[in-house]
Amino acid sequence: MTTYPELLTEIEKYVRSLYASHDSEQLTYHNLQHTLDVVKASEQIGAHYQLNLHDLFIVLSAAWLHDIGYLYTTPALHVPESAVQAEKYLKNLHVEDDIIEQIKGCILATQLPQKPKNLLEEIVCDADLFHLGTADYDEKSKSLRAELELITNKKLKGSQWRENSIFFLESHQYNTDFARTLLAQGLKGNVNKLKEKQKEKEAEKMNESFVQETLPLAEGKKEKKQKDKEEDKPGRGIETMFRTTSTNHLRLSEMADSKANIMISVNSIIVSIVISVLLRRLEDNPHFILPTILFVASSLFTIVFAILATRPTVTSGMFSKDDIENKRANLLYFGNFYRMSLKDYEWGIQEVMKDKDFLYGSMTRDIYNLGLVLGRKYKMLRIAYNIFMFGFVISVLSFAIAAFFFAKD
């Protein structure tokens, strides 16, 4: 039976080949890169909600296939066409019908205005418009404008485009709590930037003659302002580094939890079988007592260390004004603020966003602390696997020796 990761690999190959084989020069926004961005955002949101493999497969499949309709029909009809093409392909992969229906539901939910009906659909919808609340919005907006101009063969006025963009951003609301918490501030910031830009353009238009007379001075100020903005703007490479590192840490944490759950399940079954079956026969076979003790002990110790690997650490959940002023607090981790009031947290996060060094420092500490947690998890997990491996081998050997040398004739 084909596993979910193997199916996702096939879907990825299929989507990449579609974009490579179809004429998509006009798609400066709804292209393969956009699909990759949506898949990455889906993975990030899905990791936050700790989706199981089944649900994660549905979300990521929908993310890969949600825009392939652009390669077959007009933009207005691309969403239902994407669902149709996705169904055809998934049936060829022998994906179960109920899973296909859920994937189609996630794709159809991305049709504007979005109307998701469950968490999986909400995740895909938020991933599709993830960029609205990020620093990449301006670049993505330009790509979308260029795409519409190429498709319609009409030049779009900048003022009208900005006005429509402002209306769309102000009316948009993310569906998941995670996206709202992570992107709401960025969404608001992008709206403010567009409004400022619109005001600047209107002022330039009204005072065109004055601007023309003072062009040398105005240009100098504009260049200086632009230079200051570029200096203050976080590098995309830095943002990508933090995003990628955090995502990798979350994946490693999920893998560790999954491995621990396997150890707990397997050894719980072993202990249950030994207690229910073998213990009743020890009275007639006393030479099996020591092997049985070794077997049960190794399983119990394995379970203990597997539980220790997944057991959460409880923190104080508080920060002080002094922590913020001295840039010691990390407000990106819930354990540092879950006992604080919303007012205090909003004040703290505003202070973080005002200071680039404080923000990067918080992200650095967050990744470092995630690393410490991962180090502890994998250390406990390694001990659990070692105990299971050596305990299992020794127990089996001891059973064999007891049966061979001490069994009754």
Automatic annotation (TrEMBL):
SUPFAM superfamilies: HD-domain/PDEase-like. Residues 27-142 form the HD/PDEase domain. It is found in: Cell membrane. One of its GO terms (biological process) is defense response to virus. Residues 217-236 are annotated as: Disordered. The chain crosses the membrane at residues 260-282, 288-309, 383-407. It holds the Pfam family PycTM. Residues 219-236 have a biased composition (Basic and acidic residues). It comes from the Bacteria. One of its GO terms (cellular component) is plasma membrane. Keywords: Antiviral defense, Cell membrane, Membrane, Nucleotide-binding, Transmembrane, Transmembrane helix. One of its GO terms (molecular function) is nucleotide binding. InterPro entries: HD/PDEase_dom, HD_domain, PycTM_dom. This is HD domain-containing protein. It comes from Solitalea canadensis (strain ATCC 29591 / DSM 3403 / JCM 21819 / LMG 8368 / NBRC 15130 / NCIMB 12057 / USAM 9D).
